[in-house]
Design brief:
InterPro entries: RNA_pol_sigma-70-like, RNA_pol_sigma-70_dom, RNA_pol_sigma70_r2, RNA_pol_sigma70_r4_t2, RNA_pol_sigma_r2, RNA_pol_sigma_r3/r4-like, WH-like_DNA-bd_sf. One of its GO terms (cellular component) is DNA-directed RNA polymerase complex. This is DNA-directed RNA polymerase sigma-70 factor. It is a single chain. With 163 residues, the protein is mostly helical. The protein has two domains: 70 residues, Rna Polymerase Sigma Factor, Chain: A (Orthogonal Bundle); 73 residues, Arc Repressor Mutant, subunit A. Helix 1 runs parallel beside helix 3. It has seven helices and no strands. 82% of the residues lie in helices and 0% in strands.
Length: 163
């Protein structure tokens, strides 16, 4: 089989898989990354699959990557939401005499950190939407939200231990 013909078939399958991933729920950037990872894996495997076996292999690897990404994202969002919700989003979990701890801890945040918390919990903006607002990557926003939560936790513990 001619290599250029094989590459053409490969590119057709790659664009087909990308469209399928987007249709399944992946955002376009993630779909592109997944397809690229699959192609890199094919190159690194240093194998040439027959055309009738190429398509199923590409789909299987792409879907596996997509499910891994989905599970990781879902788990990360659940952890982040649970921790921030307990600290910031639900005053019912705080005893009356400890609500002032949250207020004091919030005062220690920078304007950027406070706006992240406000956008995420009060305005119900997604990490993707916040990333678009600030023109940062989603991973930077996630990291900054996590660090902000850590700072709030430390401040609340510090104020709690002093009393």
């Amino acid at each position: 089989m001619n290599i250029s013909k094989y590459e053409q078939i490969l590119m057709i399958y790659a664009s087909e898989i990308q469209r399928y991933l987007i249709k399944t729920g992946a955002n376009p950037a993630d779909a592109q990354d997944i397809v690229q990872d699959v192609l890199v894996k094919l190159i690194q495997a240093d194998i040439v699959l027959a055309p009738d076996k190429l398509r199923p292999w590409l789909y299987r690897v792409a879907l596996s990557r997509f499910y891994d990404l989905y599970r990781r994202e879902k788990r990360y969002q659940a952890l982040l939401s649970e921790r921030f919700y307990l600290i910031y989003g639900n005053d019912d979990h705080f005893p009356e005499d400890e609500k002032w701890l949250l207020a004091l801890a919030l005062e220690t945040l920078t304007d950027y950190q406070l706006s992240l918390v406000t956008l995420y919990y009060e305005n119900d903006k997604s990490v993707k939407e916040i990333a678009q607002i600030y023109q940062f990557s989603e991973s930077k926003i996630k990291t900054d939200l996590y660090r902000t939560w850590q700072k709030l936790k430390q401040e609340m513990e510090k104020y709690h231990d002093n009393n």
